[in-house]
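Just wondering, can you check both lines?
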Amino acid sequence: MTMLNKKILLMMFMVIASGLTVLLHPGHKIANEVHKIDLETMIPRKFGGWQLDTSLVPIKISPEVESRLDKIYSQTLTRTYVDDHGDRIMLSIAYGGEQSASLQVHRPNVCYSAQGFQITNMVKGFIKTNTAKIPVMQMVATQGPRIEPITYWITVGNTVVRDWWEQKLAKVKYGLTGEVPDGILVRISNISADPTPSYHLHERFINEMLMAMQLQDRVKLVGKPGF
């Protein structure tokens, strides 16, 4: 079966499943039954060898993009951390209580492109942690002299997704159960012209951050393996 045929079949499945979802009238929001999300307290301000740094500010998004994002996310967190060696990481987390046909977490490649960045070297990968492997997407965003290697993942309910297809399938899966999932975007990046060591730095940062978090918060941030 060719890749085109596979995508056609997948699209047919999604259309049928979406129709069933409408008939089921999903309205049970997962966000109403999980413990309250508070990103400011959920993510430690200091952990491992990392602490907050105010000298490097993540790029400011345009008012138009910010207005669209405000309709999607109920909470956002943007911080810059620096370690004992002077390495800096920009962390951005966004939480939306409802992932539906009209409201869904935006993938960073879309947002960065809207800001005028050129996106290259997009690949799927995994971040190894002490408890599981997190499926992630990695890419490089470039705008003039600014080169920003990025690692990100998205959770739809308890499912970690990376690209458009995975995101849609996860929403359809929840729709068939009559549930409306919430969603989290986790993005880690730094300024560097060399992506490979940057991704290793991202992995170290993620591991140290997760180890410093409460268990229930850690599960919420990285999903449940095998879900």
The chain has seven helices and eleven strands. Residues 3-222 form one domain.
